[in-house]
Design brief:
Blueprint (H helix, E strand, L loop, with lengths): L2 E6 L4 H12 L6 E8 L2 E8 L2 H10 L6 E7 L14 E2 L5 E7 L4 H10 L11 H11 L5 H9 L6 E7 L6 E6 L6 E4 L4 E4 L11 E4 L4 E5 L4 E5 L4 E2 L4 E2 L15 H7 L1 H9 L3 E2 L4 E2 L8 H6 L2 E6 L1 H18 L3 E5 H4 L10 E7 L5 H12 L3 E6 L5 H5 L2 E4 L12 H21 L4 H11 L2 H10 L1 H11 L4 E6 L4 H15 L2 E6 L17 E5 L5 H13 L4 E6 L3 H6 L2 E5 L7 H19 L18
Bound molecules: 2-deoxy-2-amino glucitol-6-phosphate.
2-deoxy-2-amino glucitol-6-phosphate (AGP) binds next to helix 9.
Length: 613
């Protein structure tokens, strides 16, 4: 969490830092601040609240310079306030730091520094870093050496950017562990630093990514990357193909709404170049899946968090049904501490939009240490989850900015389906006819997703009626059970309505006691192998006076008769139905939150990338 940016060049750093922070605000919005080198002095502007507060402050008290750093905060230590906002200045007023991560031993370090007489101006863990750097520079060391020595004292995972008024020709950035990325972008006579690609995409597509335990010395014309022991490193320069316009809201009110509507495009791109409809075959070259490996796999464990984990739950049914390989789905924060039973015949498949979720990365590392083959399905190009894996599938969604994940849910569903077909093909579990049929069904996806989106207004009208409910129960079965979880998560995270999801067959074991007129039930009932079971579940809810919203396949009169409100989706093969059934639920949650006047893209207490435990 937290977003960090830096600029060094010939232009005015302030607007560049503010525009970078704007694009990183999804990472945290408790406070924001910037520091710019102006006339040989470090000038800081910072305030509690969203970036608009900082922009207003900068308007009132302008600051200009050619070198600067900035930060948008998701608070961990110390309440959201101006005093706790980054950047943090050292006692000499000559060194300044922005930080992403948690200094796990900060109490110890703070005490040690306090005994030495260092005054503290905030309640954050981050402030110790600037004091440690200053202490390390005390013996005549320069900034680079000061940073290197200071970092040795820190426990935890960190991304930091540092600047000194005494060495105005450089910025130093460093990364330890998985606290979020540090990306360095190349311009002409200028360089950019950020936690994530979209912040600097407007200025450059040529970027390098710092690995853990690396630091970079950035001048306006160059970057030198080295390990924390001072060994020079050659970093691969990536050319980022994302369209900068994709990181803008355009005609939409919110990023979430825009991203919901981008799913036709993102799913078209997901299929492009990977599906041979003629031959009925799938190609996923970056996965490095050889026929030998395909045969060797005894078990797949999908590990992820939140929405990505729900995609994994759908993938379990797809892979087990199509490729006949046992699949477990394990929440990454659980998997990493479970002492999981994996070996070289196990594939651990991580799913992550950001590619930097701390628990997911730790789960991948755990799997690697235990000898498993590690794969990832990941959106952020060059992210740690992509680099840590033996093979990966790159989601073709472009940047996802809204905190509530939408297009980065449907893309991995299709990726998992393609993976299942590829594995089934390699392991000989599919006849040519079945394989061709499964592949052929993919062709329908973009069009049918478009038809779901065309019905936004019908869903919006139901949202208008339901906007004041206090609770909701989402029910699904089989391959659509995870869609109940995903629909409920969307509702709670952006509308703050309590929503629970249950496998519908479990209702009679307890939760049905909750059902009365004040507990609307949303039942996901497409024509799939669990259809009849779901219908009887709806009848049971109705018999107890519940208001029932039904999500059904076009033309299903039986479902319509039982429904108080209905969402329709077009007919599709049951295995691909989750790609469609989730869409009305995304739209429903979006409009409820919108009607309630809530901040859809930046819901309270959340951040887009969860880089802390
Ligand atoms: C979904 O809407 C979330 N905001 C959240 O659950 C998210 O999916 C989760 O934090 C995992 O993130 P990742 O895909 O970037 O790893």
């Amino acid at each position: 969490m937290c977003g960090i940016v830096g600029y060094i060049g010939e232009k005015d750093a302030t607007p560049i830092i503010l525009s970078g922070l704007k694009r990183l605000e999804y990472r945290g919005y408790d406070s924001a601040g910037l520091a710019v080198l102006q006339d040989g002095k470090i000038e800081i502007r910072r305030d509690a609240g969203k970036l608009s507060q900082l922009s207003a402050l900068v308007n009132d008290q302008p600051v200009h310079g050619k070198v600067g750093i900035g930060h948008t905060r998701w608070a961990t230590h110390g309440i959201p306030s101006a005093r706790n906002a980054h950047p943090h200045l050292g006692t000499t007023g000559r060194v300044v730091v922005v930080h992403n991560g948690i200094v796990e031993n900060f109490l110890e370090l703070r005490e040690e520094l306090a005994v030495e007489g260092v005054p503290f101006n905030s309640d954050t863990d981050s402030e110790v870093i600037v004091h440690l750097i200053e202490r390390s520079m005390g013996g005549g060391n320069d900034l680079v050496e000061g940073v290197r020595l200071a970092l040795r004292n820190l426990k935890g995972a960190h991304g930091i950017v540092v600047m000194s008024a005494d060495e105005p020709d450089k910025i130093v950035a460093a990364r330890i562990g998985n606290a979020g990325g540090v990306v360095i972008g190349f311009g002409e006579g200028e360089m950019f630093i950020a936690s994530d690609i979209p912040a600097i995409l407007e200025y450059t597509r040529k970027m390098i990514f710092l690995e853990s335990f690396q630091m970079a010395v950035i001048t306006k014309d160059s970057v030198t990357v080295q390990t924390l022991d001072g060994k020079k490193v050659e970093s691969q320069v990536h050319s980022i193909s994302w369209d900068p316009v994709a990181a803008e809201k355009g005609e939409y009110r919110h990023f979430m709404q825009k991203e919901i509507h981008e799913q036709v495009r993102s799913l078209t791109d997901t299929l492009a170049g990977r599906v041979d409809f003629e031959e009925g075959r799938i190609r996923l070259p970056e996965l490095n899946l050889t026929p030998e490996l395909g045969q060797q796999i005894k078990k797949i464990i999908i590990t992820a968090c939140g929405t990505a984990a729900h995609a994994g739950m759908v993938g379990k049914t797809m892979i087990e049904r199509i490729a006949r390989i046992p699949v477990e789905v394990d929440i990454a924060s659980e998997f990493r501490y479970r002492e999981p039973l994996v070996d070289e015949n196990t594939v651990v498949l991580a799913i992550s939009q950001s590619g930097e979720t701390a628990d997911t990365l730790a789960a991948m590392e755990e799997a690697r240490q235990r000898g498993a083959v590690v794969w990832s399905i990941v959106n952020a190009i060059g992210s740690q989850a992509m680099r840590l894996a033996d093979g990966y599938i790159s989601m073709q969604t472009g940047p996802e900015i809204g905190v509530a994940s939408t297009k980065a849910f449907t893309a991995p569903l299709v990726d998992l389906y393609m993976l299942a077909v590829l594995l089934g093909d390699l392991r000989g579990t599919l006849s040519a006819d079945v394989r061709k049929k499964l592949v052929g069904d993919l062709r329908l996806i973009p069009d049918l997703v478009g038809r779901c989106l065309d019905r936004e207004d019908d869903v919006r009208q139901v949202a208008r009626v339901m906007k004041d409910v206090r609770n909701m129960l989402y029910l699904g079965r089989g391959i659509n059970m995870p869609i109940a979880y995903e629909g409920a998560l969307k509702l709670k995270e952006i509308s703050y309505i309590h929503a629970e999801a249950y496998p519908a067959g479990e209702m009679k074991h307890g939760p049905i006691a909750l059902v009365d007129r004040d507990m609307p039930v949303l039942a996901i009932v497409p024509r799939d192998p669990w259809y009849e079971k779901m219908i009887s579940q709806i009848e049971q809810a109705k018999a107890r006076g519940g208001c029932v919203l039904v999500l059904a396949t076009d033309g299903d009169d039986r479902a319509a008769e039982l429904a108080d409100h209905i969402f329709w989706v077009p007919e599709i093969s049951w295995m691909l139905s989750p790609v469609l059934t989730v869409i009305p639920l995304q739209i429903f949650a979006y409009h409820i939150a919108s009607y309630r006047g809530l901040d859809v893209d930046q819901p309270r207490n959340l951040a887009k990338s969860v880089t802390v435990e």
